[in-house]
Amino acid sequence: MYLEKDDVSLYYEVSGEGEALILIHGVIVDADLYREAAKMLSPYYRVIIYDRRGNSRSKCKGASHFRMDDQVTDINDLMDTLQIEEAYIVGVSAGGVIGQYFLQCCPDRVKHLIAYEASMLGIMMDNEDLRIWAKEMQQLIAKRKFSSAVLRFAKHIGPMDERSPRKSEATSLREMENYAYALTQEFPGIAAYMPDLEIMKALADKITFAAGERSVIEHTVYSQATVRLAGKIGKKPVYYPGGHNLPFELPQEFAVCVLGTLLLRNR
Amino acid sequence: MSREEVVAKMIEFAAMAFNKDAAAITENTNIAEELGVSSTQRVAMSASIENDFDVMIPVARFGKFETIGALVDFVMEEM
Description:
The complex is a heterodimer of chains A (267) and B (79). Chain A is α/β, with parallel strands linked by helices. Chain A has a single domain (2-264), classed as Alpha/Beta hydrolase fold, catalytic domain (Rossmann fold, 3-Layer(aba) Sandwich). Chain A has 12 helices and 8 strands. In chain A, strands 1-2-4-3-5-6-7-8 form an 8-stranded mixed beta sheet, sandwiched between helices. In chain A, helix 1 (35-41) crosses helix 12. Chain B has 79 residues and is mainly α. Chain B is built from 5 helices and no strands. The A-B interface holds A 143-148, 150-151, 154, 160, 166-169, 172-173, 175-177, 179-180 and B 32, 37-40, 42-44, 46-47, 49-51, 56-60, 62-63.
């Protein structure tokens, strides 16, 4: 289904009934990151997955510039269209950053947020290696060497789980078409973002920071960012059994962890 | 650089990216059917082309090149 807006046709899918659970994807990928996990969660929640604007099936009408406020507006518009007052939000990678900003802007609309390996790179820029990596990324993007930039980008994602399903050719091609927008718009926008820590401290009960055990073992920047961000607002992260792309690679494990986290959130 | 040299390089890149035996790859090798459709592998090959030939292949276009020969033609035009 599409939500037609002035500046974008927003692609979304809804499955299941009950309390709303919105799954937000990260950079380059799309709603299909969660396809299998959404099927497993839909007996328990009304699950909404969508392609964020500028990605895959959510084509912008005219120039597509990345703005965090547009991401918030899109979630609000989706919720209004689906007559949802409050929702559980799960965001992976950049989806975790957007989920965090949505919570910061619209706390009354969020029952709970799970930020899984949120790519909160802004808080990690005191790390010399990461600064060099970000600069190299910027240089490759400026030269429009997108494939080289994607390879460099993947350095911090870690290897794919050997149990992971393979992506279909259609999904692969769709993701490849996202590269230019992801690299020139979303990557710089997400990397520059800084959360308001005072607001986050006040909303700490509504957030679970999660990271993958494999990411922790491999010491990826996203697992480090998760630990650091959780610490900054006085929380401890929880650990799920996998890597950065857990929802796609091990959807059942991801779904079980999401269910468990939401069930236990107030204990 | 001659076409033969570009073909040789392209076969080397394809063998590395798709983890195949270079001896089994020719200009007529069908990329999707004989090498694979993994985006990661396509990106790895594209990155080699970017770095070695300074030719940028729009990544979405990569899937539209049927054979190694077609990819060579594109690179030759862009060099």
